[in-house]
Amino acid sequence: MTRYDSTREAWQDIWDAASVETELRELDYARSRETMNTYIPYLPPQGKILEAGCGLCATLIYLQRQGFRVYGLDYAVNALQKALAHTPGLRLQGGDVHALPYANGSLDAYLSFGVLEHFEHGMQPGLKEAARVLRPGGILVLTIPYPNIVWRLVQWRRKRSGQGTLTDDDFYESTYTQHDLVREATEAGFEVLTVKPTSQAFTLWGLGGPFRAPGYYQTSPLADRLGSLLKAIAPWPFCFSTLLIGRKRLD
User: Fold this and answer.
1) Count of domains in the chain?
2) Mean pLDDT for the chain?
3) Are 148 and 238 in contact (CB under 8 A)?
4) Residues 6+ apart with CB under 8 A from 151
């Protein structure tokens, strides 16, 4: 089995163990609200919006409730089935983000939240497919993990102990600096509008102990307070993920 296949299988297992209700509650966390409040103003109110790699569709459900015309695609069909059981009538389709079942220039916005870092061949094929299906001027919203100071410490410790850089040899996940992410988006045909470091408190959550609260990936009040300070004084070193908003070039 290739690492692509094992990563795909791992996501199917993850979604089997998760719930739509829990994913929706996470959207009420401060870090999620901050991210959504940044990108939602860029979304076309009447446009056709795709979330590619939508999983259990929490974001898609939220946006649909806000009146957006959203569609979802994921290769984990079990996740789509759970989402439909929770919210019948969602516009969902099984498929691969590298071979989207949409015509050239047929979409107005493309959303990708923590997806393209999971492909060992890199994000360029997925980004170019996003550019293909977007109309000129269409909006790209992308979040990708950042190699923050905690991630770098974990990598250093693993190398010191003779381990590989992946925490799970069967599950692929990479990180990108803001400069690498901008370069990737530009190469794929996008004009970058916004690049923002996010979720500093969640980086602290990764340290465990006093930075974690009971609940699903819930940060503690201490992590939230310290995260707010870090966002002001050292936003990139402690950023958990980068939010990039781009626009498909008109040429």
Assistant:
1) 1
2) 93
3) yes
4) 145, 175, 206
218-245 residue pLDDT tens: 999 999 999 999 999 999 999 999 999 9
Residue 98 has pLDDT above 80, yes or no: yes
Domain with 87 in it: 3-149+171-200+240-248
Structure tokens of 218?
């819930």
Alpha helices in 66-144 (DSSP H): 77-86, 124-133
Residue 155 lies in a domain: no
Residue type, 212: R
Both tokens of 97, joined, read 């983000």
Least confident of 6-15, 28-37, 134-143: 6-15
In a domain, 162, yes or no: no
Q: Please report the sign of the dihedral spanned by the C-alpha atoms of residue 160, residue 162, residue 167, residue 171.
A: positive
Contact present, 112 and 143 (Cβ < 8 Å):
yes
pLDDT computed for residue 166 by the predictor: 54
Q: Using the structure block, give the residue that is written with the tokens 């045909």.
A: 189
Of 71, 68, 73, the closest CA to residue 52 belongs to 73
**Do residues 48 and 69 lie in contact, with contact meaning Cβ atoms separated by under 8 Å?**
yes
Model confidence, pTM: 0.94
Q: What is the CA radius of gyration of the chain?
A: 18
| CA angle (232 as vertex; 229, 233 as ends), nearest 5 | 85
The CATH number given to whatever domain includes residue 27 is: 3.40.50.150
pLDDT digits (tens, 9 = 90+) for 123-136: 999 999 999 999 99
